[in-house]
Design a protein that fits this description.
Blueprint: E1 16-20, H1 25-41, E2 44-51, H2 67-94, E3 99-105, H3 109-120, E4 124-128, H4 134-140, H5 143-150, E5 155-158
Parallel strand pairs: 1-2, 1-4, 2-3, 4-5
Helix pairs in contact: 3-5
Length: about 160
């Protein structure tokens, strides 16, 4: 008798996964994992991208950015958000998983993730362990850690 034959597979009753993505490589891998999990559970997914209110840190720039430049940066940020969500939605569609995509504006991604999970009644958040690297990641801290502390439901961290 193999080791697996004696173990019953018990699936948790998750039916609505929230999968935030920042577009990083690890976040993209988390999306693939989430789609496989949702397919196995018969669950649906909401993909979330939190779009920063200002697409770049403005500390020290003062009045150096004119309105037109800021509008161009915001448009580029919006396009990047569209790309992230479109790729996630395509991954779900290819696997036959029901999915919707949401973009939420905000400068505190962890708060937007927690609020979205509550608002939509998600019963599992699946997210990457980290996304941003370098100085921005250091200054911002771990959004995943903050979500773990505040989440209204279980959080599965993809590493």
């Amino acid at each position: 008798m193999s080791r697996q034959e004696g173990v019953a597979l018990v699936l948790m009753p998750y039916s609505h996964l929230l999968v935030p993505s920042d577009g990083s490589d690890l976040s993209s891998h988390a999306i693939v994992h989430a789609v496989k999990l949702a397919a196995a559970l018969g669950a649906r997914i909401t993909f979330l991208h939190v779009q920063a209110n200002t697409p770049i840190p403005l500390i020290g720039l003062g009045e150096k950015l004119d309105v037109q430049t800021m509008e161009l940066l915001l448009a580029a940020s919006h396009q990047e958000s569209d790309r992230i969500l479109e790729q996630a939605g395509q991954a779900a569609a290819m696997a036959g998983v029901s999915a919707q995509c949401e973009r939420v504006p905000g400068d505190m991604p962890h708060r937007a993730i927690v609020d979205t999970a509550q608002r939509l009644g998600c019963d599992l958040i699946l997210m990457a362990s980290h996304g941003r690297r370098g100085l921005p990641g250091l200054l911002i801290g771990s959004e995943t850690q903050r979500v773990l502390a505040l989440a209204p439901c279980p959080v599965l961290v993809y590493r």
